[in-house]
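Dear colleague,

Following up on yesterday's call, I've attached the two folding results inline so they're easy to grep. Please treat them as preliminary; we haven't cross-checked anything against experimental data yet. The first protein's sequence and structure tokens come first.
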Amino acid sequence: MDVPGRADEARAIETWLDAGVSGPSMGVLGGDVGVGKSTIWSAALAAAKDRSFRVLSCRSDLSETGLSYVGLGDLFAGLEGSEAVRGLREPLRGVLAATLWWEQAPGTPPHQRAVALAVLDLLRNLSAEGPVLIALDDLQWLDSATEVVLTFVLRRLTVEPVKLLVTLGAETEGDAWPTLVRVLPPERVTCWEVGPLAPLALAAVVESRYGTAFPRPLLRWLHRACGGNPLFGLETARAWSERSYPTGDLPLPESLRRLLRARVRALPPAVAEAVLVVACAETPTIALVRTVIGTLTGLAEAIARRLVVLEHESLRFRDPLLRNVVFEVAGPLRRREMHQRLARVVSDVEERARHLAATAGHTDPVVADTLAAAATLTAARGDPLTAGDMTAQAARLTSPGERELRLRRWRDAAGHLISGGDGSRALDILEDALRRCPPGPVRSEMLLRLGQAAFNSGDVAGSITRLERGRAEAAGRPDLLIPITTGLTYYCVHRGDLAAAQGHARELLRLTEASGNDDARGEAVSVLSTIEFIRGAPPPAAMPVPHRHNPVEHSLAVPHLYGFLCRCLGDLPAARAVFGALRTAVVEAGTVACADWGMAWATEVECLAGDLRAAARYADLAARAVEATGVPTSAALFTEALLLGMHGELGRARLLAGEGLRIAQTSGNRLAALSVRALLGFIDLSDGDPMAAVQHLDAAEQTSRSLGVVLDVVCPTAGADHVEALVQVGQYDQAAERVERIQRHVRVADRPLGRGLAGRAHGVLLTATGSPKRGAAELEAAVAEFSAAGAPFELGRALLALSRSQSRLRRREAARRTMERASRIFTKIGAEWWAGRGEPRSRLTPPDRLTVSEAQVAALAAEGRTNQEIARELAIGVKTVESHLSSVYRKLGVRSRTELALRMNSGRRTPGHG
């Protein structure tokens, strides 16, 4: 069953279908109108058919409740003339045929007991052929004649494999349940309450229906407005998509609006007043209603009328969209008066500010100040989106005469929205305010915010352009030039313009030295040292640790780059400490949208350190950033693909990483593209396709050279993976050159992790080229280095390589112990797939099994294609074709294309993913 957002319900129903209970049983799906019961019910029918159930289904309708046996007609449609019907004894076959109008009815209508006996026998005949599922949607509207017959039948079935799956509206509860539901003993009835969808699930449903991605912040408003009800959510999103609602209340579809408006207008005054309190209050409770209106009489009737639901002391509308209609029917004067009453009694500063704002006119300086102060508290409590809304409202209520204050509030509102991930609204606010902003510091700050919003939206070039404009407006203002220059440095690093980034970093150091702020100067040194190191300079002997973890995009650049440097150096404890503090800062402030590649690098660090649970937490933050912004990022896809690769789910990992590469290339984030290329190399190498790995890692090398960075610094494990892939495809000269480059880097940055990676690469090459004894010595040294670095995953990989070297030396017992040690390490860190491998993927692929790439080349060569034709067909190089063919010939034991064609035609080889 594949129902978005309903995985738990799907598993429960599949378990129920699979349960081999003797005799009849029933499953009941309950829930509010529009919550998705029928969708789950339909999916369950498909699942039952897949399990060889005979499915008899009926969708009941209110307009047909007065028609006799209409339900039976739907259930048994298509069975006329079937073996099960022909097997009925007379006169029951004739009774059933007449009742369902398969034959002309006799003058006297069949007796209901005769109809019931005929249905009982028919179900016994059908269940003798296999299990039967009777599926009834909207049971409360099933015609009474059909219900009576089915109730009769259920009481008399004993061991027959018959299941009933019904949906039932939430308005039908307890004693009001149809008799059919209550006929079986409780132990044979399973009930599932279908609740509202979670925000992400609702987003998936809406986006799949309308084929467009809505911004996540607006989808959160949609979820709040419809309470997770998919029907209401889809209807509201449809009306929304037809009109423009970038802010404010979400629209109601006119069909629903008319229905609910009539219902609300018919309410007695006391009930209308009670529901208005519930609609206007932030967190409505029984105590609040009593305080505001002095009585609970109206509320009690609202609950009795099923308008409002009481959950403990809290109140909510049963139909979430009812709140909007209550607002509309009340009118502006009654709403304002209610907000005034609530503002007088609520104690929460933020809630009081929002009620006051609802009572204000076009401008109200007092309320504007109250809102601005409350927004500051809200942001400090980790809710930047709400803080942005409140600050924007404060800006609207600020007097036009206070132009600078109003512009600053618009700027601050955008800053909160950026932190919360709503870059789209932030861009709209800032672009509008920028048109009315005179040259000077405020305009410069707005351009800084615009740069942040553009970067969060994946527009790296646009972010740099805006910051360069902001720098021109900030002359003589170090307090503005420092964050602008920091942002320019960070964004140029991502764009891959390291020369420009280095220039900005030097300017940042000059600015901070002139400011006299030692902390800021230390951070500038960190940034400059990071850029110089990844460009090939020696690492600094000592680096000042950044002090700031202020979770705003340009401020995060400093700890991001410092953590990145620690990762590049292989200083895993320092990197974990920096990223841990960064994670705490963004979580507490609710600014996950600012995390992006910082969380991706942190995920990689935790994978190296062997803490896959911590890695998953960082990956979750990257995913939450996507949820917040509505913009898929290469960082989020990188983190998910990396974790999948660690767990051996290589097919999915490759797909996600491929999409991450596309996004990085489209957005102009060349540093991200480099990281994703290296990850794809790791994935393909792990999956037993070393030629594909070589192609990705060759491309990564070329990109790093064009960027002027050292690949083995930016992607520490890429070099060792590259050597291993080159060795597996027999390109030993290239592998030797690659080992030399790794060793050259290690001589510059002498750290245990780097020495271990260089040792693994050299040991693999030596073992493959006839020097297993020297290879084993190199790998034993690498094992010691990885242990010192605290890198258990790479330690396990080195042990796998060492085991192969020991096997070459005929030290079989030592090889077995080494393999077992590697398996224990992988198991301990939660990488069970690697523990189960025992050896690299290429060993699990039998010697005569071909990789995907090899099989494609072999098939075309067997058809008589030339190397040039194969290269054009597969979009690869001619040398790559030659390398693949050499490997194919060796694996299949053939020496010519003629032999290859005979071998391929005698038994097609399938790619080895074993």
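Below is the second protein, in the same order (sequence, then structure):
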Amino acid sequence: MKFDENDRKSLIESLPNSQPQIQSTPQRQSDDDPHYQQTESFVAAANIENGLRQNPALSYRRYTKELEKFARAQAKQLQILEKIRKQEDKERNKELLGQQPSPKYRFQTWIKMYILTRLRDDWIFLAVLGITMALFSFIMDEGIQMCLHAQLWLYRDLTSHIALQYLAWVSVPICLILFAIGFVHYVGPQSAGSGIPEMRTILRGATLKDYLSLNTLIAKMVGLTAVLGSGMPLGKEGPFVHIASIVAELLSKLATPFHGIYENKSRNSEMLAAACAVGLGACFSAPIGGVLFSIEVTTTYFAVRNYWRGFFACVVGATVVRLQAVWFQDADTVRSLYPTYITTEFPYDPQELFIFVIVGVLCGLLAAFFVWVHRQYVLFMRANKLMGKLLSKNRFIYPAIITLIISSITFPLGGGQFMSGEIDSPQQLTQLFSNFTWTSKDLNMAQMDIVSNWSSDYSSIFINLICFTLFHFFFSIIGSTMALPHGMFIPALKIGGGFGRLIGESLALWLPQGFSFPTLAPIIPGGYAIVGAAAFSGAVTRSICVAVVVFEITGQIAYLVPVMIAVLVSNAVASLLQPSMYDSVTKLKNLPYLPDLLPSNSCIYNIFVEDFMVRDVKYIWQGITYQKLKEVLKANKTLRCLPLVDNPHDMILLGSVHRHDLINLIQEHIGRDRRLQVAQQWQQEVDEQRAREQAKDYQGSANNERRPSRFEVVAATDLLHLRQIANDEMLPPNRRAEALINTLSPRKSILLNRNSTDEQTDPEGGDNEAANISKRVQLPGDRVVDMSAEMQEKWERDEMLKTVNLDKSQINIDPAPFQLVERTSMLKAHSLFFMMGINHAYVTNIGRLVGVVSLKELRNVIEKANVNNVAVQNPREELPEEKALLSPSHTAVDLTITTIDSSITQIDLGSSYESANVGAGLNIASQSSYSQTNANENKKSSDV
């Protein structure tokens, strides 16, 4: 604060001469009051002046204190004023810029900046992935056990009447299944099914919409928990592979929200392959078998550099899963999932190896029959009109009927007593792998309890094992047709375990002392159950490393040689008869895949890319007009990328452009934002011209009618305008633009009762064209200046005839799309598509675009080659004349911004790539959920 001379003199003259200094008021105000601080400053200055005037000989110390007091008061006043100014600035910024960041938002920003960025490191990313999957596995297992215990508790508590027990036993599974059906359908329809066939498709380069989204993750976890908690004869290994892949995708996006792992296709494949291994490792606590199984089932070509990623993540996940069992489930120590205790020094005789070979052959035949029955039942469900009507009317009827039948069969007082229906799947597998003979007479109490679950008053253990095997063989197939998350690995283990236990118990009954009588090495039925489980599950999945998975989940390696022999034999037998379960499901769902080439077929070496490529390529070129670009997009709705050439004559390939970027380019060129901007610019020019004319007329009238004045009168609105400009300068650029538009827009008087939309006319009636240009739309708190319908149509027609400048546009152009030459062999193309994970490649001849090859053409020619039915074209024949890409009729351009907005919204940018000349796009039609999803997707496609 400045203390000038006039204030000082007036203050000193008002003081009495007899008073040496002015004292402050008795009632002291608050030190934070700026008026009080100002008064203190005046008082201190007055005391100094008064003392110097009355007694110049006063001591120097006295007036030094007064000076110090005055300086302190001034400093404190400045501090208070600074606080007030900061508070006012904060309130003004809050009013202008919106809500200030909350502490929660600042904490989230700190988390993203200092913690989530660490996920870019592979070690930390894989460790977090393994720990997350272990936590998910523990939570889901706890939920499954709670549902199973609730069903068993209701059954055992209602012992007064059998009907009430049956009602309690059946009602819980039906409620859980109906809940799962509704939840999966409305939250994530893509979560239905196993997950491994779809992951194989994704790892091979195809794109499945919303398959790795958060909604699918939630639906998969909740649906799988409800399905397994209901006691359905299904598994969880396939859904866990899917869940781990979704978690890996979401973690990569969370770690790097703008340029993440998911944007790099090569890195994406590596992380998804590691996630598949983590899913199996967390499901079975089998890190080695999980890695090998994921490699063997989900991929065809696997990079060795990814080994450490899969093993590291699997070890972390399996370790955390086993430690959780110790911490929260009262486990004694870290042990296998289904422990066995075969402690004999001679687990099997050499003569038993022949029996194990027979077990492998029988399991291979049963596995092939299992896959065939599954495919035939699915085809029957699709072809049956009655089932189609039933599923179309209500999606809850079929699952309710299936659940009622299965629950009724497993009722403990009914059919459940013949198939151990009162115990859950982990207990069933553990008891099947037990190392004692169930037909033995010398059994302790624990062993008798186990045998009581597999026998009844009306049947022996052999009848129960047969019923158990047949029930899971057929009803696991029937249950898998429900549109719910499920797996087939655990049912295969149970079927193979029951079949192997049946053979082992039969041999133990026929040969109680074993094959070698002098050595007294009895037959162990539990070993046959382990061999049967490995052989049948390996034949169903067509995987050799299932043997390693069985070793890890049982903790038993004594039967290493028999298990490997049986698995190899069963795989050989099943491969001659039927494809694997995952290949069969892939074909049933019509997922984009590449079949394997038969090495015995010699014609595959004489087929080249030019024999089956598509020659009529849809493309764009430098200098294309927006109208022609729009017609190309409209005529090829299934293409995700379009090749870019220099001109239609030379056809030199320059790159490829994504469809989404081209649609955004058209939207930016004639979209609503640009249209409003142009309309606002036109309106501003009209207003400025009108203002100049009015100012000129006013100046002329003022010069004629008024005399010169000595005073200049400034309107109050000008002061308000200057203040508004000062406030607008403090706004950010986007808010400043909005404020500028609102400032330039003419204001509507509150005294006039007009409609919310009206045309502005010239008050003087001199500009009719300006009256038709502008149409104002009054919204609450906002004013929009838009074009009329006629002006909009004319403006869009003129804009669409302009050429596209791709060099100056900000769209992403891939300068190096995957290319092949005409003489590339089919064998090499097959290997490249497999290893690179691509879904299409352009065919060039000395840089000139001559064709395109997609996954569908390659798949068709491979299928024909495998059956020796390939019609090879003559490569020397002349190419057909180039057809005009666009129709010559460009008379009228019926295009409005409403059409463009709706088309941009409705176009499915996430659909998988399929060439328009080849046929339709991806068709996933395995079950009702997939069929309904495709129906909705087809409805969404519309004209641009």
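For the second protein, one point worth flagging: The radius of gyration is 40 Å.

Best wishes,
A.L.
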